[in-house]
């Protein structure tokens, strides 16, 4: 074992101030651009030191907020603060071997990271982390094995993405452009399609997810990205606080009433759910009547061409969080195709979801295998 600081040089980024014009200069790499939760928009058009330059294939490590290791795939860019660029100038080392081991190291180090609201690793702590450094031949052998598993994981994720795109394409094929109503369907306020909009509740909870079937409340992130993620929850401190009427059930359509301006008003359909999970006060449950299929409404709300109508419902003075009231949501104008067509589309979406369930099962097994291999090689 050696120290992580002994195997390479780590160049910390700089707090580049974006230029007033965004179509010139070099893009500034932020942590959001590495994690996939954003897109590259900020550019810098001034002078800079070449040490902050990032090129395609460079290894980057985010050491604050979201700990992770990434290989940059993109145009020449500039390194923002809270990110290390790795320069392999100390030891003979396989880049892929390094990335896999640092991924494993950071996962363990996250629990020891400093910062109550923003986790980060100090440079001395980072440099002192132990690193397994076998011969270059052994490094390549280990990396080749992990590459095979990683490639299979990537293929499964691509399959899931393609199935999502298939559902979106089928939606447009059947109902046309959601923003233009190209099929000339009747336009109605959403309240004509609902029996009720239910609100969640707010509780003082643990910061940790629940264990087993202990009662818990969903985090906003359980719905934020348009897919229901029941593991995103916080355990109740007192099990007696559980409110049965607020429990999530199979077949529910959930809607985020409060979030950032870009993500406010996303919806998720509950194809299945473990018991004793409740809605938080930041999420609505939309109960539809016989005029409207929940899965049709889900795909309309989340469709990129319809998002502007949803976001325009939001109010609030804070730029970071927007809020949609029941009243404004109830009066949202939607187009309403015949229910038989909605049901045809819903049946198609349900079949695709069954295929995705099978792929997700395979994906989970591959991810478990990868973790087991990394523990075997690096711990």
What does it look like?
- The protein folds into three domains: 2-133, Adenine-n6-DNA-methyltransferase TaqI, Chain A, domain 2 (Alpha-Beta Complex); 137-170 and 337-379, Orthogonal Bundle (Helix Hairpins); 186-335, Adenine-n6-DNA-methyltransferase TaqI, Chain A, domain 2.
- It is built from eight helices and 21 strands.
- It is globular, with a radius of gyration of 24 Å.
- 33% of the residues lie in helices and 18% in strands.
- 29% of the residues are buried.
- Strand 6 (59-62) and strand 7 (68-71) form a beta hairpin.
- It has a four-stranded antiparallel sheet with strand order 2-9-6-7.
- The protein has helices spanning 31-35, 95-109, 123-128, 136-175, 294-302, 307-311, 326-330, 339-378, and strands at 2-3, 9-12, 26-29, 43-44, 53-54, 59-62, 68-71, 77-79, 83-87, 130-131, 187-189, 194-199, 216-218, 233-235, 253-256, 258-259, 267-269, 277-278, 283-288, 322-323, 333-335.
- The longest helix has 40 residues, at 136-175.
- By secondary structure, it is an alpha+beta fold.
In short:
With 379 residues, the protein is α+β, with helices and mostly antiparallel strands. The protein contains 8 helices and 21 strands.
Keywords:
3 domains, single chain, 4-stranded antiparallel sheet, 18% strand, 379 residues, 33% helix, Adenine-n6-DNA-methyltransferase TaqI, Chain A, domain 2, Helix Hairpins, alpha+beta, 8 helices, 4-stranded mixed sheet
